[in-house]
Amino acid sequence: MPKKNVRVEIPENPTELLDLAKKISNKHIADAANSPLKGIVDFNWSVTQPFIAPAQAKDAEAANFRKKAEEAIGERDKNIDQIKGSIKASRDVLLGLNKKNAKVLGQWGFAVSESVSAAPKKKTKPSA
After folding, report:
1. pTM > 0.70: yes or no
2. Number of domains in the chain
3. Which of 10, 25, 34, 62 is most buried, judged by most C-beta within 10 A?
4. CB 22 within 8 A of CB 14
């Protein structure tokens, strides 16, 4: 007879994990003295149970903040292309007006870094 493999998943998602904890806790409380979970040595549901509701409340609060953050990011991003285009055009105009002194753009808030590129190496002909 083939061996039967059984897996009992524990959710990684915090919301699902808290929902499962609430179900286990409710069953443990309902079974009272008959609960097989009373035999757990390292963890105690009577200690864990009071943490579930506050954790669920904070999880709901976090979900609300995520939703608000997504909405705010969406609103922000509606304007980014216009703003970025204006910045690029301003940089280009200011660079055109200050070709010999790009550092002037620093007065406008731009971060200006100058580096000197190495002179191209001369190719040498191989000796025959």
Report:
1. no
2. 1
3. 25
4. no
